[in-house]
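Lab notebook page, bench 4
Experiment: in silico fold of construct C2
Operator: M.H.
Input chain length: 338 residues
Purpose: comparison with the prior construct
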Amino acid sequence: MGLPVSPPCASGLAWTGRTARPIGEDTSLWRKPRALPAGQSGRSGSLQCRRPRTQPGSLKLRANRLNSTPVLERDTAPVSAAADTRGYVDTLVSIVTPAYRAARFIAETIRSVQAQTYRDFEMLVVDDCSPDETAAIVESFAVNDPRIRLLRQQTNGGPAAARNRALAEARGRWIAFLDSDDTWLPEKLEKQLAFHRARNAKISFTEFRRVDADGSHVGRLITVRDWLDYGRLLCDTGIATSTVIVDRSKTGPFAMKKTYYDDYACWLELLRSGGRAVGLREDLMRYRVVGGSVSRNKLKSARHVWRTYREVERLGLLRSAWSFANYAGRGVLKYWRF
């Protein structure tokens, strides 16, 4: 582990990640300047974003602006917040969880969300016409916790359609993804949001460990790179979906494509226009390895990665081959042992 650093962030909490190497601000993310409202001032010598932000490290200012309890204070009830110009609630994290035949694990997944030290979230669980008790289990949590919402699909449409249903109903600025058989460690949202705000990125992701189906065997730490842009991501397996947070104030509305790797295709699409996904070097998620899951058949997965290059990204043959060789090599190094 490297020495922790503590860059300032809008939440007022220090990030406790391991890297001390900052990345410069990506000017491709700047938007057209506009005049600030009377009485507000921005940073001297920099473009102002469409939505004014509080000064880093000022919990007091943030509380006054939102007229609520500071959002990263531990053990507080959910807070209300003003919506930005796109209608997103600035402090709210909308958690997207597609679920199909998830009765065995969904309760543990929901409990890991309820245990978060960051309290201002909504969890949208989309039942994709499961034939088991998935919907009933989710409903039992929703009755007692209004932050848990059950959405039912009329027909089985797969993970991309289920995620898009949740994205369409999500109210938060921040979109976090969590699959129905994975779990988060309690400080996942709190630490990652502080890190994400400090790095001013479109996407953030974290390290994690794999666990077996019954959770009795915890695997080695799966590390991440400091950052990935579009070119790097083409050659890398580094983003695990259940670690991802997306800042919609930077990406705008987005949706998953109906493809085998809808998540990978989505990250590529969000980064294609510029910007970076930044990696928090801290273990904050448990990825459950279950027989029959979408990503377990490696040969089938390899074919679909190739199709992503050629059919979704429309890369040329040489670039596809180079990207695939690097992607496969990193995948072997990443998963060669549990």
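Observations: The first helix runs from residue 59 to 66. The domain at 74-290 is CATH 3.90.550.10 (Spore Coat Polysaccharide Biosynthesis Protein SpsA; Chain A).
Next step: discuss at group meeting.
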